[in-house]
Structure formats: C-alpha cells, structure tokens
Q: What sequence folds into this?
C-alpha cells in the first residue's frame, strides 16, 4: 500500500494514520532529521490535526519520531553510536528469538513462515522493495512470536521500532539485497530442521551485516554533506 492516501475511514482512524505515517518515515518519504510539517501531513493524509498529533505521539514512543520543546516533531536521526548500540541489542534479541522458535514453533506457524518467505522471494524477483520489506519484517516478527516469550516480544518490538527505517534502506543495494535473500533462505531451512543453534547464528550474522551496511550508508551521507558544505 503506498503512503499517499486518498481518504481515511473514521473507523480505527488513529491506527490507520499511525500506520501511514510510520510507512512514510520507514520508506524515507520523510527524511531523517526532517521536521514533520503538520499542515502538509494533514492535507496529504486527509485528516485533522488531532489524529495526526496522536499518531506522532505513538511514533515518538516507538522511537521513530523525536518531540522537541518549542520545535515540534522531527524524524529521528540516529548517530553512529546509537546504531551500534541498538544493533548490538537487536542481534541478541533476534538470535534468542530464533533459538527458541526452533524449539517451540508449531506446524501452522512454520507453514505461515514458509508462505511469507515464498511471497518475499517473489517480491525480491520483482524488485518490489516496499513489499519485500513488509514481508521481511513479518517473517522476523513471526520468528519472535514463535519463541512464545511475551517479555522477549515486548523488548523486541520496542528495540526494533528504532531500526525500521534503517533496515528498509539497507536493502537498496543489489548485491547486499541478494545476500540478505540468501540469508533468509538459510534461516527458514534452519527453522524447518529445528536447528536452534544454526538459526541463532544466521540471525545474528544477518543483523550484523545490516549494521555494517547501515554504517556504510551513514558514512557516505556524512562525507557527501561534508564535501557539499566545504
């Protein structure tokens, strides 16, 4: 679903506005560090300021938006230290999710993950990054859900929210996207074999590769800005 919206139904308005604004932030339609223009967003999403401001507060709690006194809301821009710290925690959360999922996944959950993986492969073949990312995120959430640990899930969701936009942008390079797809093939194979150690290792390596790509992009952007200003 594109982030450009025709009309927002009254039912579940808050949830829908939050979803659409989150999508704009994750997919870079609102750049990191940019101020959220409430008037423009209200026009684009066809809502009043009240549901928009509620959505902004929700996304601030998720870590995608920062609320600044007397300045309004800006899209979060993580520093290199923030990225390193967050990926360090996320890799362990992903790894633990995979290890527990291999022990506890039900037949229906396994079938759903395999179906999502098949759909994601099709999106990759089409080079449909938006659909690929949506399915990719669903697979990672499914691994976490199959671990059947509510405390782990709550922590996972909180930390993962900070990384959504970075994970989306890390797949925009052809070679790195292909590697990520191959890594997912091995993850699903490990889950099918119920090999918790292998799935943990694949997920940790996958997150570390994402971290490295994100840091590379950050440094390229910083160098570009530095050269432009000098």
A:
């Amino acid at each position: 679903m594109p982030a450009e919206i025709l009309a927002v139904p009254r039912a579940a308005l808050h949830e829908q506005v939050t979803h659409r604004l989150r999508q704009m932030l994750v997919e870079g339609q609102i750049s990191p560090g940019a101020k959220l223009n409430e008037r423009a967003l209200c026009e684009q999403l066809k809502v009043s300021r009240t549901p928009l401001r509620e959505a902004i507060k929700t996304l601030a709690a998720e870590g995608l938006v920062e609320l600044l006194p007397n300045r309004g809301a800006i899209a979060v821009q993580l520093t290199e230290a923030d990225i390193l710290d967050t990926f360090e925690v996320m890799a362990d959360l992903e790894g633990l999710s995979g290890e527990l999922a291999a022990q506890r996944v039900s037949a229906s959950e396994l079938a759903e993950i395999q179906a999502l993986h098949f759909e994601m492969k099709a999106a990759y073949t089409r080079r449909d990054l938006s659909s690929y990312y949506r399915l990719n995120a669903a697979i990672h959430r499914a691994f976490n859900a199959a671990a059947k640990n509510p405390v782990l899930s709550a922590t996972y969701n909180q930390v993962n929210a900070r990384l959504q936009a970075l994970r989306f942008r890390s797949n925009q390079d052809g070679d790195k996207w292909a590697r990520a797809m191959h890594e997912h093939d091995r993850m699903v194979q490990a889950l099918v074999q119920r090999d918790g150690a292998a799935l943990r290792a694949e997920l940790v390596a996958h997150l570390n590769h994402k971290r490295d790509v994100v840091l590379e992009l950050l440094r390229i952007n910083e160098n570009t800005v530095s050269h432009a200003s000098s």
Q: What stands out?
A: The longest helix spans residues 196-229. The chain has two domains: 13-75, 80-229. The CA atoms of residues 97 and 123 lie 25 Å apart.
